[in-house]
């Protein structure tokens, strides 16, 4: 898919403040500092579109970007702190949980970022457990920062995650990507997937 236009649309602090559902939405989420803003800028080809964070976890707004006037890229606030609570949903930003649970069919797909260099992190495991069990939209995994280590180490990391985490999820991810904002790995694959899901 070619990106012809990418424009910031609006920011929303809550689900109620989100724009009325119109175009298909593709959401991006991950732990703070996982490389989400860098990936979004890589995908849309605009360096400053999503603000690369200097203070991890600072951005708590849902940001909407209109892409090619055809679909919306939704930048969800990163999760960054672990709490152990009975209500698993309470571990994540309320607006994020509401959006992922209740946005409806306009949310076509979520991309969950995982740092490719790390062993499975508790917070990612908790988030994916909740996402797979409590929400309906299809999702994929995106292993970020792949340039920071060898391809074989990244593959081992993906395999370990698959064995130790994905195997226990109520709904499996649709696809798995490896990406790098430095060498652009994964860009055409993710955009190709979005294009296919849009039917273009
Ligand atoms: P966010 O908090 O998830 O939005 O993460 P950012 O995009 O702000 O990135 C966090 C830090 O990781 C920044 O210092 C980025 O420059 C760095 N970073 C992000 N993506 C990559 C990548 O693919 N490769 C490398 N080497 N560094 C990255």
UniProtKB/TrEMBL annotation:
Cofactor(s) this protein cannot do without: Mg(2+)
Origin: domain of life: Bacteria
Domain EngB-type G: 22-200
InterPro entries, A to Z: G_ENGB_dom, GTP-bd, GTP-bd_ribosome_bio_YsxC, P-loop_NTPase
CDD domains: YihA_EngB
UniProt-recorded Gene Ontology molecular function terms: GTP binding; metal ion binding
Record keywords: Cell cycle, Cell division, GTP-binding, Magnesium, Metal-binding, Nucleotide-binding, Septation
Stated family: Belongs to the TRAFAC class TrmE-Era-EngA-EngB-Septin-like GTPase superfamily. EngB GTPase family.
Record function comment: Necessary for normal cell division and for the maintenance of normal septation.
UniProt-recorded name of the protein: Probable GTP-binding protein EngB
Organism: Cephaloticoccus primus
Gene assigned in the entry: engB
